[in-house]
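Minutes, project check-in

Agenda point 3 was the complex the collaborators sent over. CS summarized: two entities, 399 residues total, and the question is how they sit relative to each other. Sequences were read into the notes so everyone works from the same version.
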Amino acid sequence: MTLRSVTASQTIGPFWHSLAEPGLADLTRHGATGTPLTLAGRVLDGTGASVDDACVEIWQATPPASPQFSGWGRCATDAHGAYRFVTLAPDPAAPFLAVIVLARGLVKPVWTRVYFADTGDVLLAGLTAERRATLLARAEPDGWRWDIRLQGDGETVFLAL
Amino acid sequence: MTTAPDPREPRYLPAPPGSQPPYQVPAYGSTALRAPHQPLVPIVATTEAGGPTVTPAWLPALADLSQVDGRAALGERIIVAGRVTDEAERPVAGAMIELWQANAAGRYHHDRDRHDAPLDPNFHGTGRVFTDDDGYYRFVTIKPGAYPWRNHANAWRPNHIHFSLFGASWGARLVTQMYFPGDPLLAIDPIFHAVPDPAARARLVAAFDFALTQPEWALGYRFDLVLRGLHATPMEPV
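CS then shared the predicted structure for the full assembly.
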């Protein structure tokens, strides 16, 4: 059969914020219980400037979805480019979150992952140490910290699925 | 997690050349500092082959953008409907589609929109629908107006409705814009023209559909969408 072509992507633009209900950044808001995990950071452009109109979304397959836990979150970056998620820690066997960033100036999303340990999985093992570091969150007293650099020095590793 | 993925696992198909925009689009100024420069790193989807199931229980449907509390918005009421499938025309059921758009005057209900055009208290411009078991969706809205933007001198966006879709998997996530047939601004819009293939661009333009109209009430537009599906190995191009 003839395959159809996937619909072309277009930018989310600057005016998407009616989709950013504040509760969506807290994946535990429906009463999910487990090991809490807080992930915060900034989205930065090629000059290191804040990307203040980005949409950051996370998806995690574990803990498994339930009526209390969808595994999906969305956060709008603020004037400093900052985002912050409250969720549950993923399974230690695959300790990462799948992440996408959408923004004005991105005509299609960037897909990436944030890891909480260097597991040496096929993705991390295939990267140079410098590039691998862009996918590793660091532990801080108030939670995990991870910046996303869209371009330039320290550019985050983005994925082709 | 150090073992190689099973090659028999379903995979995403590569996009045909020109069917998706590149990150760097010189005519669209905001891409200059935001488009990645490094090549993407190919991976086989694992977690990304799954995805959230967002239901109306979490985020309720809102399929009529054309009124607020029974007060009609100003502008041309329209019906937009279509079907969501994957490349093999398998319907995508239960897909959440989020919608947002400018009002009939070309103004968004958004703090950062500085266009000197009136807001309409009866138009918020945000909706949400879910596809049925055969992938069909439908909503009612007001035809959005064109509006200026600062990309270049005398730049205007064509009339468009923003669509955000969650398909069956994370890698299928799609955000796009639906345009209207016959819009003269399509010929000169850098975001629309970010898509290199003219046929792929044409698929972003809804079709006027007389069968969708409701007599004495609203005209209808048909807009079908295709999301990435996971396909068994024999379907992959060699």
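Noted in discussion: Chain A touches chain B through 69 residues (CB under 8 Å).
Follow-up: revisit at the next meeting once the mutant set is ready.
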